[in-house]
Amino acid sequence: MTVLLVDDHPIVLKGLRELLDGSSWRIVGEATTGEGCLVEAARTQPEIVVLDLRLPDGLAPEVCRELRRVAPGAKTVVLTGFDDEALLDACLAEGAAGILLKDASELDLVPLLERVRRGEMVLDPRLDILSRDANGPRGAAGITQREHDVLRLVARGMTSADIAAELHLSVNTVRTYVQSILEKTGTHTRIEALAEARRMRLI
User: What pLDDT is attached to residue 55?
Assistant: First the structure.
């Protein structure tokens, strides 16, 4: 099992190495920039990329988008010290399979990476956004079977284009379903919708 570590802070990279030490995960490369990440990902084709939200030459959503091109088999886990709702939601929209807070003292990285490898979406429960009340009605009423299909694939970290291909729909139709899910769950972003869907045991 292979992983690429990407962060511009040496102390964070050191902490990640220590968390993975002795596990079955093999670190195949490290990078400190988005460009370096893409070069290493293309060279090593890792199973998972652990990616910092903010890098000196770009942001994680842009890197996630390019990773799908240069390392299509890799799953991306975004590591962040920020609760930036718009950026984190953009990461999910670009196919990130997980978002974890950058806190090595509490981060149990190995089992979380195992879950991502199995195809699960992993969102750190300590993210403020997951405990924030969203405006609007809550409840599962009105979620159609097709919307549930879309929601399930969003939870697997798939982009709108991926979901469209999987369900034989147009990208615009998928986006319409996602917007409907947000409205029906009383949420505003994919992250909030996934958290609410889990609370309602929809996924």
Answer: 94
- 16 with 74, same domain: the answer is yes
Radius of gyration of the chain (CA): 17
pTM for the full predicted model: 0.71
Same domain, yes or no: 38 and 115: yes
Q: What is the DSSP string of 110-130?
A: HHHHHHHHTT--EE-TT-HHH
In a domain, 131, yes or no: no
Give the range of the structural domain holding residue 159, as residue numbers without chain letter: 145-200
Task: Please state the φ and ψ torsions of residue 166, each to the nearest 5 degrees.
Answer: -65, -40
* pLDDT beneath 70: ranges in the chain: 83, 104-106, 126-141
Find out whether 62 and 93 touch, Cβ atoms under 8 Å.
no
Same structural domain, 46 and 113 = yes
Determine the pLDDT at residue 137. Answer: 39
SS3 state at 155: helix
Does any domain span residue 40?
A: yes
